[in-house]
Design goal:
5-stranded mixed β-sheet, alpha/beta, 12 strands, 313 residues, elongated
């Protein structure tokens, strides 16, 4: 039963039989099942032939327009023909609206992508899509798992840097009574330094063992393809690269190079500040002269040394 409204809805397995505008502006959409596979028992797989009774559910879908849509799915309950089936009876379901689901699959996917790709918070996505916080968080976990489980893209230039992440947490060892770190406040991130891969991985801690632990989870062919590693001037990262990626060339990013050059320049400038004409030593004052270079103070007698000389130092 493919009509224009059903094609516009684009929800496979169901057909629109009526659309009604309610008093508050919401549009009520009545649906029926048109997928023959919905008659198959989820447990035994046997197609049912005897109807047990009608059922109506109200699954939520992606908002349409300002008022959105309110679904009323008119479906049937069936008796399973398999005598050994533990379910005995079941209700129609389709792939886009699984059994017992109050949210369509595409709405759940849209909620997960909004948090994963669009940078929305979980609570904001829940407000926009009229869902609960646990529903959106569950959808985000499923959506994020697709990215985490996907194979890493090939890399020529890998970036490694640390990020502060909360506070350090400790727990006491039951036997010895000593304390150990359960969560480090520093995390090490691995990013695509040239392409659009973004964050490739993240591990708690910034020690050599932490970095090698993450590298050990990557395929050997992926590690051999890396030619350059962009890092800061961390001896820990350098040691980890020599061990885990011996064929890669370490490249220090220009920010830390310029930062170190400025620090050394300031140290040299403070150490080689011009001395006064009489060779007095000491740190420079606001006027640029060392503290011991005030000739007026030097000529005062011991009894008058406590008085200000009047020369602005």
């Amino acid at each position: 039963m493919a009509n224009n409204t059903t094609l516009l809805l684009g929800l496979d397995g169901v057909s629109v039989v009526r659309v009604e505008s309610l008093a508050d502006g919401t549009r009520r959409v009545d649906l029926i099942t048109v997928d023959e596979a919905a008659r198959a028992c989820p447990s035994s797989g046997v197609f049912a032939s005897q109807v047990k009774g009608p059922a109506v559910t109200r699954p939520r879908d992606i908002p349409y327009g300002e008022r959105g849509l309110e679904f009323f799915w008119h479906k049937r309950c069936w008796w399973c023909r398999e005598p050994a089936c533990p379910r005995k009876s079941f209700t129609e379901s389709i792939a886009r609206i699984p059994a017992g689901a109050w949210v369509t699959a595409r709405l759940r996917e849209a909620a997960g992508r909004r948090v994963r790709d669009a940078g929305s918070t979980v609570i904001q996505a829940a407000r926009d899509l009229h869902l609960s916080w646990p529903t959106v968080m569950s959808a985000f976990r499923a959506s994020a798992r697709e990215v985490v489980d996907a194979p890493l893209p090939e890399q020529k230039l890998l970036g490694v840097d640390e990020t502060r992440w909360g506070k350090t947490k400790w727990e006491q060892v039951p036997d010895g009574g000593k304390w150990r770190v359960t969560r480090d406040r520093w995390h090490t991130g691995f990013v695509d330094a040239l392409g659009h891969g973004g964050l490739l991985g993240q591990v708690g801690g910034r020690t050599v063992a932490d970095i090698l632990a993450w590298l050990s989870t990557t395929p050997l062919t992926w590690r051999k393809n890396i030619r350059y590693i962009a890092i800061d001037m961390s001896a820990t990262y350098r040691a980890a690269i020599r061990t885990g990626l011996p064929d890669a060339i370490a490249v220090v990013d220009h920010f830390h190079v310029v930062q170190l050059a400025n620090k050394l320049l300031s140290m040299v400038r403070r150490r080689t500040t011009p001395r006064s004409a009489d060779g007095a030593d000491g740190p420079p004052t606001r006027s640029g002269r060392p503290v011991g270079a005030c000739s007026a103070t030097a000529r005062t007698s011991p009894t008058n040394s406590s008085r200000a000389c009047g020369t602005p130092c």
